[in-house]
């Protein structure tokens, strides 16, 4: 599976990728199907396209090969840009559930697979929303939606122009800002109840200086092995689930 730009649209290809994207509820403009692999009467993907009201047509393999070099598995979808939410939508989602806001903010995570994995874990751990910066960060593409296993359709994702200002706004809304880095306070000593935001840094540089200075506390995971650090999606998964476990009633 992969995705690539096509003018203003993006194309998503691969049978499972297109199926999962359809199920996620994200907008899809049209689908091209290889006529020798799919039919109106036997294909589950065609049935789902009909149910979702997505236009489709059958084409020959050469047409699909021309669009994505033969890696399409007989199906290509033209998809629209992901619909981002506002930070206030995230806060409102928490209020609507009668819960304190539980938010994940990402400071420059550039790998789409890391972003997708973090969104997937965030949704599973009950995070009300994910915040990403508009610059120097992966955006939510069909590839990210695929890695998230459709979770990007079920958790609000906000894309902001200034992450530092956004964190200050959330502090004014009563949220504690916990930044995750190696030289911080042991997470076992931190109160993870109440309104909070976890901030994770980029894969190579960690938290930027201004974002780090905007955090109420820098927090670390205890480490026993010789490995100096964890992949950001792994570290994020541990922190989000540690938070989730402390917030659920016993």
Give structural notes.
Mean pLDDT is 88; it is low at 1-8. With 250 residues, the chain is of the alpha/beta class. It is built from nine helices and eleven strands. Strands 8-7-6-10-9-11 form a six-stranded parallel β-sheet, with helices on both faces. The protein has a five-stranded mixed β-sheet with strand order 1-2-5-3-4.
Which features characterize this protein?
five-stranded mixed β-sheet, 11 strands, disordered N terminus, 35% helix, 9 helices, 25% strand, alpha/beta, 250 residues
Which parts are unreliable, with pLDDT below 50 for 5 consecutive residues or more? 1-8
Proportion in β-strands: 25-35%
Q: Using the CA coordinates, give the radius of gyration.
A: 20 Å
- Class per helix and strand makeup: alpha/beta
User: How helix-rich are the residues, as a percent range?
Assistant: 25-40%
How far is the N terminus from the C terminus? 41 Å
Strand order of the largest sheet: 8-7-6-10-9-11
Mean pLDDT level: 88
Strand elements, count:
11
Q: Which descriptor suits the 3D outline? A: elongated
Number of helices: 9
Query: What order do the helices and strands follow?
Result: EEHEHEHEHEHEHEHEEHEH
> Describe the biggest sheet?
6 strands, parallel
Tell me briefly what this model is.
Helix content is 35%, strand content 25%.
Write the layout of secondary structure elements.
Layout: E1 2-6, E2 9-13, H1 15-24, E3 28-34, H2 44-52, E4 56-59, H3 61-68, E5 75-79, H4 87-96, E6 102-107, H5 112-124, E7 129-133, H6 142-147, E8 156-160, H7 163-172, E9 176-186, E10 196-201, H8 209-214, E11 217-220, H9 232-247
Parallel strand pairs: 3-4, 6-7, 6-10, 7-8, 9-10, 9-11
Antiparallel strand pairs: 1-2, 2-5, 3-5
């Amino acid at each position: 599976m992969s995705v690539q730009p096509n003018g203003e649209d993006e194309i998503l290809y691969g049978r499972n990728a297109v199926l999962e994207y359809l199920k996620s509820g994200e907008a899809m403009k049209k689908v091209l199907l290889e006529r020798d692999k799919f039919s109106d009467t036997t294909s589950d993907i065609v049935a789902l396209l009909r149910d979702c009201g997505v236009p489709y047509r059958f084409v020959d393999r050469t047409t699909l090969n021309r669009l994505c070099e033969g890696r399409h598995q007989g199906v290509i979808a033209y998809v629209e840009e992901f619909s981002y939410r506002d930070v206030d939508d995230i806060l409102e989602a928490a209020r609507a559930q009668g819960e304190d806001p539980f938010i994940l903010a990402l400071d420059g995570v550039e790998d789409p697979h890391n972003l997708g994995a973090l969104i997937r874990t965030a949704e599973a751990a009950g995070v009300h929303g994910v915040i990403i910066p508009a610059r120097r960060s992966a955006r939510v593409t069909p590839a990210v939606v695929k890695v998230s296993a459709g979770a990007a359709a079920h958790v609000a994702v906000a894309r902001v122009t200034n992450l530092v200002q956004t964190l200050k706004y959330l502090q004014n809304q009563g949220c504690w800002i916990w930044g995750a880095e190696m030289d911080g306070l042991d997470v076992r000593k931190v109160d993870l109840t109440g309104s909070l935001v976890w901030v994770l840094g980029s894969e190579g540089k960690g938290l930027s200086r201004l974002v780090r200075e905007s955090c109420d506390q820098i927090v670390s995971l205890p480490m026993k092995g010789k490995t100096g650090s964890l992949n950001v999606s792994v570290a994020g998964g541990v922190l989000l689930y540690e938070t989730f476990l402390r917030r659920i009633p016993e």
